[in-house]
## 1
Amino acid sequence: MKIYKPKALISGHKLGPEYAGKKYVAVPKQKVERGYYVAYGNNLMATLGKEPDMRLRFEDRYGRGSYWLYYYEWVEKKLVMCDLIA
């Protein structure tokens, strides 16, 4: 199982007023396409097959091109083993 571990969750008000009051996780596009699970704290979230709430494109500050970040609402739910198998 491949796991992506973000450093922090993002407050929704930083993304826009319609996202205020929620927590989000930013996942690189490549990680979503390869089927990584997102782990933060003791919780896991699957992103493969889920539509992101927002997509933003950024230019690399060192001139290596651009990259996409997909933003998903972080739901506090513990993933059990039967969820991983299915």
## 2
Amino acid sequence: MGLNSSRFRSNPHADVRVRESYQELRRDESEGLEPEAEGGSCSIFSRCCSALFSSTSRKRRRSEEGETSTQRQSKLIRLDVATEIEPTLQNDAETQTYVSTEGVSTQTLDTVEKDVTPGTANTLVKPGKVDTPVIPGKADTVLDDWLDFPFLRDELSIKQLQVGKTMIIVRGLPGSGKSFLVKQIKLQYPQSVSCSADDFFMVDGKYDFQVKNLQKAHSYSQSTCEKYCREDKCLIVIDNTNVKRWEMAPYYSMAEKFRYLVVLVEPRTPWKFDVEQLVARNSHGVELNVLQKRRNEYETIIPRYFGLFLNRGDSLSLLQQSKELLLRALLCSKDFFQDFKQFSGCDNIEEMLNFYSRTNCMGLSKHILHLTTKFFRNTKGKKDKTSQDLSYYDSYLGMSSRLCIAGFSITKRTLGAKIILDKHQLELWEQNDNEELPQPGPQKNGHKAQPVPAPVPPHNKQQPSSNSHDDLQSNLFSSLVTRSQKVSKKKLFQSKGRRAHLTLGTSGETKPVETGLDTIRCMQLLEKSDSQEVLKLPSGPGMVEGNLIKLDPSSWFIQLDRYMTVNAIFTGSY
């Protein structure tokens, strides 16, 4: 889902604030209403800003006159209000749970939640450190070390999985404790559904395995999974041995198609690779030679990258918020407007707002924002698949934490959200924070390299087809809020994690990975220069405050006054 207006069809409210800034102005002129601008300024920038900032009061005025809205709404639920509000405020919150995308993530919830301080450990709970049993009345089952998973013990992770769209793929040899783990997940999440090839062999409550029907059984499991995806189930659990990567490929494809995050887990039982114990423990009578063969074939599954992934509702909310901030910056700064016009080649604000898109993103990242913490290079198809030790990440898979957003970088190539990592997120951070943009030089044949082509105007891009049915029919959950904690420049300039960002959009043929390089460069310019042009962005009720800072003619930065935070799940892209 990009920043192009044509790609926001899946959520009719995603850029309603952008359109209303113009529609309200024309509407008031036709009704004889004066713009509510201070000082009586008649410039187009002041009038558009006034129309944008006073839209709420005008809606109230027209509502009192009996005017009704006919726009379709996609329900968006505030995760923080719905799940983390103080008990004394619960009654008031129940009437405010469902809100439209237009008003999401712009309020400061100081009375509702404890503030998050970037760089401290209060945004991420390490696995196994939660004292309160997760499953009431079943503490004896979750106290075992081999069931110490964040999605079974960590409170924030449990809440996040209850409202997002997640597919947990459980893999393991017969007798390793795989099915028992699935049962614990279903106890924790009663709304979850599971898919297993074993279900095909269940006849009148008895397991009747026939090897000739094995392929049919897996087809049955896959078709069941697709059925649940179409029904928009929030948590789908895949319960198969999944020894090799290709066995999981159909589920990866379905997760990408229906916008599910994938969490890949294995039992933590000490005997999971002990063939003799597996023979004694498996309930299907699998023989020793078969288990030994499967054990030898068992692959270490290496993702393309690990990262912190937002859910769909949070992704849409943050894209909307960035677009609103970009609009305010264009309307309120003539210098920024001229620079943006120069490096983008766009002639008007509508084209400028659509300059960045997500067409260059791959797979699920077209629709889901994420922060990459570790990238694995050229691992697919290599013979040394088992040489990588991923055990360090196992205790974090499926864990939710809060990302702190300090500002937005705006360059001729990319639009990104700058993230401040806390100390536990920094433990997962394995990106190069000192990488620089490659300088053009002579090619190997002695000729000079061709110049980088100019960004393609948005109207010349071929937009990919997308199925927006799920966004219109589903409730979208958002945890994006503004905190009372002031943004610290010291945190912006810390060396480790300087590259941390969310790619919101790119221009032309720019690859999303280059947003990280632009983020590094913007932080370097922001730190070294003491004479930047700084403009306080006008704000109003429910609007995020910030300063627009010029770094150079093709690089600007919007530094937020207060941190915005959003929930994200640590997992891999497979």
## 3
Amino acid sequence: MIRKISIFVAGFLFGFLIDMIPRLSELSLNIYLCREACPSWFREASMITYLAIPIFWGVFAVWAFGRPASKVGNKPKTIALAASLLLIFAITWTAYAYHQQII
């Protein structure tokens, strides 16, 4: 049980790191993402996504690594990582585009 909890926490922290991509891109690229200028539906959808990704990665880590001699291959892990990164990059680009009034 302790092993599964620690794996969940590690997955949760990994999901939190993925959530930090928009902020890190703001700081490193010296760009600004919309805060108040974004539509309310976009702010709500991004907040739900930012809350869901760490929880997803915590549960996914327990599923993928929590069982003894786990037989989960690399394909589900790669797909989950690619989907998470694609979602975060889409949110980041959309926030940047709203700030620059591209869309």
